[in-house]
Amino acid sequence: MNSDFNKIILFVSQQMEVAMEQNNEYYNENSHLKAQHPKQQKAGFLKMVLAGVVGSVLTLGVTELPEYFSHDEAKTISPVTVDNTTTSKSTSNLSQMLERVSPAIVGVINIQQAPSSIYDILSGNRSTDTTPAGTGSGVIYQVDGNNTYIVTNNHVVEGAKELKVKLSNGKTIDAELMGTDALTDIAVLKVTGQLNIKPVAFADSSKIRIGEPVYAIGNPLGLELAGTVTEGIVSSKERTMKVETSAGNSSVKVIQTDAAINPGNSGGALINTSGQLIGINSMKISANQVEGIGFAIPSNDTKTIIEQLVKNGKVERPYMGLGLVGISDVPAEYLKELKITQTEGVVVAQTDSVSRTKFNKGDVITAIDGHKVESDSDVRNYIYTHHKAGDKVKFTVYREDKKTEVTMTLRSTNSK
Hints:
By secondary structure, this protein is an alpha+beta fold. It has helices at residues 2-15, 84-101, 118-122, 154-157, 299-312, 332-337, 376-386, and strands at 33-34, 105-113, 130-144, 147-152, 162-166, 172-181, 186-192, 213-218, 228-245, 248-257, 269-271, 277-284, 294-298, 318-319, 322-326, 346-351, 364-368, 371-372, 392-399, 402-409, 411-412. It has two domains: 2-27 and 317-415, PDZ domain (Pdz3 Domain, Roll); 33-52 and 90-316, Thrombin, subunit H (Beta Barrel), CATH 2.40.10.
């Protein structure tokens, strides 16, 4: 039986690149989203994993002609008068708002250790040189005395040995990483010193409306185009996108917009007409046949995460101590060998010293608190959104094809 589970674990690690060494949530502060995030262009871009996105064709047809086209006689139509003064005033107000907010959108430079040369490798040495590995964007959201706090994406700062921030005045300064969260793709930086930059205020992202004008500000294609503003609307208030992260598969709640989000925009701001932050630009669909589909992490979700990152350096989540694999991700021949007949649910592939007192390898979890689960991300998302460490959770489990109930107390990520 153990050899069979080794086959499953090997298959998952090779085919899905899922790190199971840490825990069932695959939680790792230093991991990053394996998605098509609009970071600075470089080799090895990874595509976004999307759930429920269906390509469709929309056709526009005229079903009824206006009444004045249904008569043969000509009609006199009065010309429409446009109030240019109102339009000019509106444009001026918009420009003033963008000019006020733009200085708070900064460039984030990820500096990593340079690859070792062949000479270094042969001589047994490693290069100590550093080199910029990529750039993204960030948003100044808080100033506390001499400290300025910047929110950006986790994948912008992933793997950095040093981090620098480039301001709108062209000055480059050192930044300290306060904390990162791979599953939500959020990171917080701190810079010391008086910058005299007004932070961007948070909007209540739950109150945005479809069709509402929005503006994306960031550094597309690198710092040469710093402070670029693109315009669009809220295309959808809430989408749930499935993404692969090295902290595990995750479902991320995002705002959809058609404002252009290009490589380098990651971590930049999506703001409303009042100049308030409604989201952090994070990812886009990258395909030749797709245009105008970008996503931002809602400001309400961002606030919750950054508060924990500043306080603890990481996000505390409940922990089960299980390594889980969705049944749909296990080859049929392995399911047959393991005598698993269920077609939905998740297979327990690993247990730690505590969880193995409750679960066996090969158990199939089909529900939590009566809530149906079909994948490891379903389990994670339910646990994270409905429970905290210390809660008792009831699992519906099939063990050797017999249904049973298992109750387990959740731990914190610090107690593992």
